[in-house]
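Subgroup meeting minutes
Present: P.N., E.W., G.H.
Scribe: E.W.

1. P.N. recapped why we're keeping a running log of single-chain structure predictions: easier to compare across weeks, and new members can see raw inputs and outputs side by side.
2. G.H. added today's entry (218 aa).
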Amino acid sequence: IVDEMPDQVYEHLVLNGGSFKFDPYAEPDHPDDEESEIFTEQVPEEPSRILPKSQLSSAGLDSRYQDDCLQTPFPVRDLERKLRKLYYEHRSIIEETGANNLYLIIGFLEWTEEREDSVPSRSPLILVSVSLEKSGAAGDVPYKLQFDEQALDTNYSLHEKLKSNFEINLPLIEEEQLPEEYWERVAASVSSRKNEGWNVVREITLGLFRFSKQVMWH
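Output recorded in log:
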C-alpha cells in the first residue's frame, strides 16, 4: 500500500469498522498506433512505499487520505490479478484449516542478528486480521477489505525474540493506540541499536502470514 497515512487507515478500518476498496496506480497515456513509431513509451517509476506522516487533524487533508480506497503501486491488471490470487488462497486456507492468515501489516521493524554476516530482517509490528471479499460492484478491481474483529495483535514472536536474545522489551500495542504513537514507542525501545541499523519501516502490506507461534501464545 502506498501514499496513505497510517493513522487514518487504522482509524477507518479498525476503530470505525469501515472497509476499503483498492485503487490501481495510474498508468501513463499511451500514444496511438500512428504515433507509436515516433514516440517512445515512458514507464513511470513505482511510487515510494514509505508512507507519509499522519496528520492529527483532517482539516485541509487531501481527499485521497480520507476516502475508502487504498492506493497501490500496481497497474489495474496486475492489481486485479494479485487480489484474485490472494482472495482464492485466503478462502482455501480458511476452508482447510479454519484459521484466518490474511493480515494487513502496519509497520515493520528492521533489525539484524549479532553476527557480522547477518542481513537485515523485517518483522511485522501491528497485525490487523482482515477479510477480503468480492464487493460485487462494477469496476476493474471488485474487492474490498474489512477488519476481521477477531484479532488485533502485536507480533508476540518478535516480542519474545528481542527479549530473549537482546534484552529489549518490545512494547505491546494498547487498545485504540494509533500506529504513529506505537511506532514511536517501538523506536524508543530499540534506540540502543539504532547505530546498527535497527529502525521502524513506515510501510503497510496486505498478505498471507502464518503466525503458528502466535496461536500457541494465545
